[in-house]
Amino acid sequence: MTTDLPARMLRLLSLLQTRREWSGTELAERLGVTGRTIRRDIDRLRDLGYPVEGTTGHAGGYRLASGAAMPPLILDDDEAIATAVALRTAAGHLTGMEETALRALAKLEQVLPARLRTQVAAVQETTATIGWETRGPRVDPELLGSLAAACRDHESVTFDYTTRHGGCAARRVEPHHLIASGGLWYLLAHDTDKNDWRIYRLDRITNPAPTRRRFTPRPVPGDDPAAYVADKIATAPTRYRAIATVHAPAHTVRHRTWALAARIHPRDEATCTVDCSSNHLPGIAQTLAALDADYTLDADPEVTAYLHRTAARMRHATNS
């Protein structure tokens, strides 16, 4: 039984932050107290300004509602370390929000107990991130949050969108999912004007505005948002064409290369084709080098010329 009132209050607040709703009986069992004690502690939290709401139902329950200010976040030791590590990982990867993650990590470290601060510092000092490509465009956390809320609440939104050709047009969509891939964020949405599914890069979205109009979610083609977006990215027009016929099974190649699975197609049990097409010649070379198998290549002249130059430099380096 938790007899220390301050400790019990903190524990109660922590529980309310981990789930949408708790019954009074569940809270009493977790804290080892009576239902009457839980009701008194809930009243104490309300007196301190925490917006704890009572819920209706057979047994009744409690939930922490949204308030004017965010209450202190209560984390146990493992949760605090896991959060710090996750922020440190986000700061080192191509998420488009590296600077925001670092600011959040700095704030978290300021309030960590000394015993945890040293552990988190050790993680930071002894880890590093390998970046295989140029960092992607910055992502506005406010935009990400507002679109996520619109996806969750099934609320239509409008925004201006800049296409890959540089043109800009107004869009009105039903947002469904946010997908992160290759250092970029994508919005999967149903365009109400075109009456079709579309994918929008978040770094090309400006002037977003909620419409306050709700919609009934449509089923995503294939019922897999990530797979649908991956397939669209894989089949999107590219500047340079390069198709490799690889003398290895498709499943083996999938484990050897970072090419999207949708770009790898089996021909038979022993060979497959890999679409290495890209807007960047170095990316094509990297994908081909990762195949680790013999292959023949059908590619644009610009691709073959670049590969010949790269191979010549490598031969010169190994012969010198």
TrEMBL record:
Record's PROSITE patterns?
Answer: HTH_DEOR_1, HTH_DEOR_2, WYL
Keyword annotations from UniProtKB, A to Z: DNA-binding, Transcription, Transcription regulation
One MF term in the entry's GO annotations: DNA binding
Give the Gene3D superfamilies listed for this entry: Winged helix-like DNA-binding domain superfamily/Winged helix DNA-binding domain
Name the species this protein comes from: Streptomyces syringium
Protein name, please? DNA-binding transcriptional regulator YafY
Every copy of the HTH deoR-type domain together lies at: 5-71
Q: What InterPro entries would the database entry show?
A: CBASS_pafABC_assoc_protein (IPR051534), DeoR_HTH (IPR001034), HTH_11 (IPR013196), Tscrpt_reg_HTH_DeoR_CS (IPR018356), WH-like_DNA-bd_sf (IPR036388), WH_DNA-bd_sf (IPR036390), WYL_dom (IPR026881)
Task: Tell me which Pfam families the record gives.
Answer: HTH_11, WYL
